[in-house]
């Protein structure tokens, strides 16, 4: 086991993400299953990795990430407009609903219905937390470069 979090570490953590208003956006404590972070694999922002470096098992830390350090800003290019006819098979779209859309190559992308107006439906493909400052509360449970992903929820 590694003594502290390093650039290539696998880290088992409990975390809570809170929005500007203090509401909880996500927490591993809700299901009691910690998350596995692998530093250096590109799945975490550079700012998040930097905040974790040097922590030891048992350490807790609270920090805030600006939108561009967390999930990015809101990109107008990821807001698209569809015809109501495109939703015939899916049923009546409701504002706030998250729907899966087929992307290039057959992959699926989640989109949030932002507006339904006449024959036009506005869908936002930005990450749901894009544009938000995120307060991150983390507790390091274990640090191990060979930690197996089946022990935790991998985070992407």
From TrEMBL:
Q: Which residues form the PPIase FKBP-type domain?
A: 8-72
Q: What is the top EC class of this enzyme, as a single word?
A: isomerase
Chain coiled-coil ranges:
none
Reaction catalysed by this enzyme: [protein]-peptidylproline (omega=180) = [protein]-peptidylproline (omega=0)
Write down the EC number.
Answer: 5.2.1.8
Instruction: Tell me one GO molecular function of this protein.
Output: peptidyl-prolyl cis-trans isomerase activity
Q: Which Pfam families match?
A: FKBP_C
What are the protein's UniProt keywords?
Isomerase, Rotamase
The answer to keyword Isomerase applying to this record is yes
Specify the superkingdom: Bacteria
The record's annotation in InterPro entries points to:
PPIase_dom_sf (IPR046357), PPIase_FKBP_dom (IPR001179), SlpA/SlyD-like_ins_sf (IPR048261)
Q: Which family does it belong to?
A: Belongs to the FKBP-type PPIase family.
Q: Sorted alphabetically, which PANTHER family does this protein's record hold?
A: FKBP-TYPE 16 KDA PEPTIDYL-PROLYL CIS-TRANS ISOMERASE (PTHR47861:SF4), FKBP-TYPE PEPTIDYL-PROLYL CIS-TRANS ISOMERASE SLYD (PTHR47861)
Protein name from the UniProt record: Peptidyl-prolyl cis-trans isomerase
Protein source organism: Pantoea deleyi
């Amino acid at each position: 086991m590694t003594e502290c979090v390093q650039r290539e570490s696998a880290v088992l953590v409990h975390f809570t993400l809170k929005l500007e208003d203090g509401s909880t956006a996500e927490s591993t404590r809700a299901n009691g299953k910690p998350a596995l972070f692998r530093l250096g694999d590109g799945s975490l922002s550079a700012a998040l990795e930097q905040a974790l470096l040097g922590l030891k098992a048992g350490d807790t830390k609270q920090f805030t990430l600006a939108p561009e350090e967390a999930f990015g800003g809101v990109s107008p290019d990821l807001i698209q407009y569809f015809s109501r006819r495109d939703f015939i098979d899916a049923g009546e779209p409701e504002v706030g609903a998250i729907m899966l859309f087929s992307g290039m190559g057959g992959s699926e992308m989640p989109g949030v219905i932002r507006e339904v107006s006449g024959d036009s439906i506005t869908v936002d493909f930005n990450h749901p937390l894009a544009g938000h400052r995120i307060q991150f509360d983390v507790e390091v449970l274990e640090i191990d470069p060979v930690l197996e992903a089946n022990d935790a929820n991998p985070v992407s």
